[in-house]
Structure prediction request, 238 residues.
Amino acid sequence: MFYKYIFFNFYLYNFFSQIYFVGLGSLSVIIISAFFIGLVFSLQIIKEFLYLNAISLVGSVLTISFLRELSPILTSIILIGKIGSYFTAELATMKVTEQIDALYILGINPINYLILPRITALILMLPILNLFSFITSLFSSAFICFMLYSIDPKIFFESVFYTLSNIDIFKSCIKTIVFGFFIGLISCIWGLITKGGAKGVGLSTTSSVVTSLLCVFILDFILSYYMFDKLDSSLKIL
Prediction:
């Protein structure tokens, strides 16, 4: 009974360490990236709305773009590069140095100890990071609207809240949950099937990142098609 208690605490500590690493460890990168992506994207399209005299649509269009597509994709790409590559390299190193075999000898299931906490951490934290990315992008867009184009933040955020809907937030979170599952699964699989020495670790890490990116882009199209294709225009209420 005592050994079961020790093992439970061991697994629990490992799980929360992965949560911390994926979540808080990536938050600053997500916020900085989202801030500048919001600036650049707004810089490119706001002038077109000014030309069309459609200032009231700026916040709405940016909200739809960020919430449905840009924030989930941006957040996933950053986590693939930062977290997915790390997971693959770590597991690949354990594989080639026979540390995973040592876990079997110690009576520890590598799936429960190494794989499940990583996948679960990505599934739980990616939607939260996505929301941080979305909020940051909106504030950076409001900032550049006011500073460069003298668009009142009140007008901007009124447009945002007219278009923002719970169903879009829910679907955006569903997207990132699916992305998180496949990023974690692909990263761990490439790590576990690694063969050879340092070269094998490098090849597995590169293959993991490329496969994860392709998977996310393909899944994004499929999910967007089924989630948003049959919706009416969100601008009708304006």
